[in-house]
Specification:
It holds the Pfam family DUF525. This protein has 132 residues and is an all-beta fold. It is built from no helices and nine strands. The strands form two sheets. Strands 4, 5, 6, 8 and 9 form a five-stranded antiparallel sheet that branches. A four-stranded antiparallel sheet has the order 1-2-3-7, with no helix packed on it.
Length: 132
């Protein structure tokens, strides 16, 4: 099945695409826990090889509470992405509400240590009405 990327941001030739899905089998709605999985594809359309150094996420739940997650790399990796290539990874996000959102940015290192801050597009997290 081909993944449908619903959200896209482009910064200096770095394309970040996001597909997000609610996972009822990973959620415990009766306990107030909803869970989403998101697939990120980072495409390097620039003319230089880039290494993903850090990530920054702003996660907002349905109550308006904000969590910030930042650190090195993504899912334990700091991938090097050559021009014309891409890197995919999958991760997840639990929330205490059936709705919320995520957005953020990556910092890449390019030629001679140049840093590029690439936006991760805003995307909603929404459980189907029947799920909660």
């Amino acid at each position: 099945m081909k993944e449908l990327f619903q959200h896209t941001a482009i910064t200096e030739g770095i394309v970040v695409r996001v597909a997000v899905n609610f996972l009822p089998e990973q959620s415990r709605i009766e306990a107030g826990k909803w869970f989403w999985v998101y697939h990120i594809r980072i495409e390097n359309e620039s003319d230089e090889t880039l290494q993903l150094m850090t990530r920054f996420w702003r996660i907002t739940d349905g109550n308006g509470d904000v969590s910030v997650v930042e650190g090195e790399g993504v899912v334990g990796e700091q991938p090097v992405i050559a021009p014309g290539r891409s890197h995919d990874y999958v991760s997840g996000c639990p929330l205490p509400t059936p709705h919320g959102s995520m957005e953020g940015h990556y910092v890449f290192r390019g030629k001679a240590g140049r840093k590029v801050k690439a936006l991760i597009p805003f995307f909603p997290l929404a459980a189907p009405a029947t799920a909660g």
